[in-house]
Amino acid sequence: MSNADDRFAPPERLVRTLGSGPADGAGRQWLASLPEQVHEFAERWELTPERVHRPGGRGSIVILARRADGTGAVLKLEAPDEATALEHAALTHWNGLGAVRVLQAEPGAGALLLERLRADVTLRSLAEAKAVLEATATLQRLWVRPADDHPFTSVADHTLLLAGTMREQREEPWAADARAVVDEALELRDALTADAGAGNGTEEPASLLHGRYQQGKVLAGERAPWLAVGPRPLVGERAYDLAWLARDRVDTLMASPGAAAIARRRVAKLADALDVDRDRLRGWTLFRTAEAGMRELASGARARGELLLEFAGML
């Protein structure tokens, strides 16, 4: 392996996430194979790799590159699993409408070649009011009807698995202070999934959802001002997708005087802006934030977990 390949070593964040398993584990093996994979796909797709985007994600590596004609592109490599195939399917369905465009793909190998966006410029670079305006406009473009033969999991099925994990976590000694919020989140999730399509005015057609939509997942582009990246697509009601945006910049919000009132106003404004039921958005925001908080606590990130759970409790 050449010294040049060392430039494309995985970022520390990715190494911390996948490299903590046993030495013979799949995560470590995949990390070790990355320089060779970069070389292989660069040859196959006639790319000139430039640099690794850092800090990058926790499950993939992003390489900024040039195609044979000199245009910019991004090589995204992820440990092969269903996630890459689903991301590819969603991006292909959107076909550049509100989202990054796929140039080439080998989903079975965990490889996507994407159009080059301004990787260091996200909506978080804007003032909050402007960022929210652009975020909601972009999100509306993504809410399209999925294909009849789509491969995506429903919100109900996805959150059923999350709820099961939360019920197990709430019994742990470290979760004692979070149980009231967790219980409310679980009750809301059950009510929200039971109500959907139950003849009570919530029977909106299922939309293709980004799944992880937040300001940091929207990058500046050339053919459009802002484009979404990194979906973990689902199908279901729009309020679920909007919930992550409702808790965006939570650190700043929680440090503000009157944080609880600000949080509730944010939910109301987002719901009204995108014609989503306020109560359903509140419910999904509380559930998704509590689930994320418990996940952080379980991983040992206590400060982050407690912050998210405190925000959920304010709702």
Automatic annotation (TrEMBL):
Pfam families in UniProt: APH_6_hur
GO BP term, example: secondary metabolic process
GO molecular function: phosphotransferase activity, alcohol group as acceptor
Lineage: superkingdom: Bacteria
InterPro entries: Kinase-like_dom_sf (IPR011009), NH2Glyco/OHUrea_AB-resist_kin (IPR006748)
Name of the protein: Aminoglycoside phosphotransferase family protein
Organism in which the protein naturally occurs: Streptomyces telluris
